[in-house]
């Protein structure tokens, strides 16, 4: 299996098929990230698509390192751009946030619990938890993507994870 | 170390969500405009570049003759007279226009590719 870096360089030389492999490899990560950040799933998929198209246009500027972090940074910036244009009264659509895919009832219940718990977090905590815990970026990669100081990212992740665990435990007991 | 704290249980839950999001339809949605664009972009760029290169190459022989006339010391024929100079200059200017046009076309294509990849 070709590495991300090799595929990215192939894509930069104009090989669309190499980029398609990267899209297949990271669609779950990027769609998951945008769904956790954006208000609605439809909007989230638009953001994910925009992120991949931006990545395709800028693939020549990829200089090695973690491709996932590079891609997640692009997706996060797409989210920020969209949020700037968004009307302030738009809030999370709890019903629409459920992932409508062929999954078991138990797994769906887990998804709903996790989504609900995630939405209780303050936005900056949620962003850091989504980038570091869900997308798997290191704290320094998340700091670079968001522009938050490294210490702030660590603090947000620590508090966010604690709050998330507490929420999930409460929902399990209930 | 706090900076590398792992939260494997939560990460596994998130990954399970991400796996359920795998979809061929989404890949197609992303790739369709990319493939569509590639279909006309490559022939267009190579066509324009080829025209530019062809125009430039077609002028080389004329340019050489003009340079010989313009700079008599370059050639073996030292019998250049004053009368030949204006014609040579005109010829050189005419060639230069073609060369400049070809260079503009080539640079335009290069700029297009670079800007798309930047």
Fold and architecture overview:
Chain A is mostly helical and 174 residues long. Chain A has 2 domains: 1-97, Rna Polymerase Sigma Factor, Chain: A, CATH 1.10.1740; 104-174, Winged helix-like DNA-binding domain superfamily/Winged helix DNA-binding domain (Arc Repressor Mutant, subunit A), CATH 1.10.10. Chain A has helices at residues 4-12, 16-37, 41-57, 67-85, 105-119, 123-134, 139-146, 150-173. The radius of gyration of chain A is 17 Å and the shape is globular. Chain B is mainly alpha-helical. Chain B has one domain. In chain B, 79% of the residues lie in helices and 0% in strands. The longest helix of chain B has 35 residues, at 24-58. The radius of gyration of chain B is 29 Å and the shape is elongated. At the A-B interface, α2, α3, α5 and α8 of A face α1 and α2 of B.
Count of DSSP strands of chain B: 0
Average of pLDDT of chain B: 74
Radius of gyration of chain B: 29 Å
Measured between the Cα atoms of the first and last residue of chain B, the distance is 38 Å
Number of strands of chain A: 0
- CATH class of the largest domain in chain A, anyone? Mainly Alpha
- Greatest contact pair? A-B, 46 and 30 residues
Order of helices and strands of chain A: HHHHHHHH
Number of helices of chain B: 4
How many domains make up the coordinates of chain B? Answer: 1
Question: Which value, in Å, is the CA radius of gyration of chain A?
Answer: 17 Å
């Amino acid at each position: 299996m070709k590495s991300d870096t090799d595929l990215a360089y192939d894509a930069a030389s104009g090989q669309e098929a190499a980029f398609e492999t990267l899209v297949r490899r990271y669609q779950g990560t990027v769609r998951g990230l945008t769904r956790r950040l954006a208000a609605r799933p439809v909007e989230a998929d638009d953001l994910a698509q925009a992120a991949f198209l931006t990545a395709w246009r800028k693939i020549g500027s990829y200089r090695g390192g973690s491709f996932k972090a590079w891609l997640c940074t692009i997706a996060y910036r797409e989210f920020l751009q969209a949020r700037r244009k968004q009307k302030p009264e738009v809030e999370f659509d709890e019903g629409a946030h459920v992932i409508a895919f062929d999954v078991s009832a138990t797994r769906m219940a887990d998804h709903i619990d996790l989504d609900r718990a995630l939405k209780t977090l303050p936005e900056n905590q949620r962003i850091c938890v989504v980038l570091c815990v869900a997308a798997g970026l290191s704290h320094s990669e998340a700091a670079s993507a968001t522009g938050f100081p490294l210490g702030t990212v660590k603090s947000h992740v620590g508090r966010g994870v604690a709050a998330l665990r507490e929420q999930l435990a409460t929902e399990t007991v209930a | 170390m706090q900076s590398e704290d792992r939260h494997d249980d939560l990460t596994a839950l998130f990954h399970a969500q991400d796996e359920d999001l795998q979809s061929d339809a989404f890949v197609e949605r992303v790739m369709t405009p990319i493939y569509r664009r590639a279909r006309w972009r490559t022939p267009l760029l190579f066509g324009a570049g080829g025209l530019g290169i062809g125009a430039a190459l077609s002028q080389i022989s004329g340019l050489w003759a003009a340079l010989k006339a313009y700079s008599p010391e370059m050639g073996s024929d030292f019998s250049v007279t004053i009368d030949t100079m204006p014609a040579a200059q005109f010829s050189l200017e005419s060639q230069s226009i073609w060369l400049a046009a070809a260079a503009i076309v080539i640079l335009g294509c290069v700029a297009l590719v670079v800007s798309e990849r930047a």
